[in-house]
Structure formats: structure tokens, C-alpha cells
Amino acid sequence: MRKKEVTIEKLAEMIAKGFETTATKEEIGHLVTKEEFRHLAEDVRILRRDTESGFSEIIGALKSIQNEITDLKKLDLEVVELRRRVEQLEKKLGV
To answer: Are 13 and 21 in contact (CB under 8 A)?
Structure first.
């Protein structure tokens, strides 16, 4: 399928149409003051810091859990080996 060529005039029309629905600074100026925006920006920085800190704690807990799982797997292998040895001893003893 061949792409339709866009002329400079058509591109200019598309851009102008896009700007027709774009709000101006005056239209949105009443929504938030510069001071309110600064406070909001600071709140976002605090939220980001706290979120990153929380994720770091979660990652630390997950690593701890992974280590415990690894230890449990090793213990499970030891139990399996000990059971095998007990079965061999019982077999030799006729139990």
C-alpha cells in the first residue's frame, strides 16, 4: 500500500487545526498558581523519594526471602539424602 503524500499546505492545515483545540496560558492560568505548582512539584518529589525508599525495602525483603528459600532447598536436599541413607541402613538391618 502506497503512503499518501502530505503537502506543506495540508501539513500547515493539520497543525493549525491542532492548535485550535489547544488551551492558551490565559485559559488555564486560573487552574493553578505558580506557588501551588511549586508545592505540587515538591509533593511529587517527596512521593517519588518515599516510593523509591519503599521499593528498596521491598527489594531487600525479597532478597531475604530468596535466600531463605535457597537455604530451605538445601535443607530439603539434605533431608532427602538422610532418608535415603536411613532406608539403606534399615534394609541392611532388615527393619
So the answer is: no
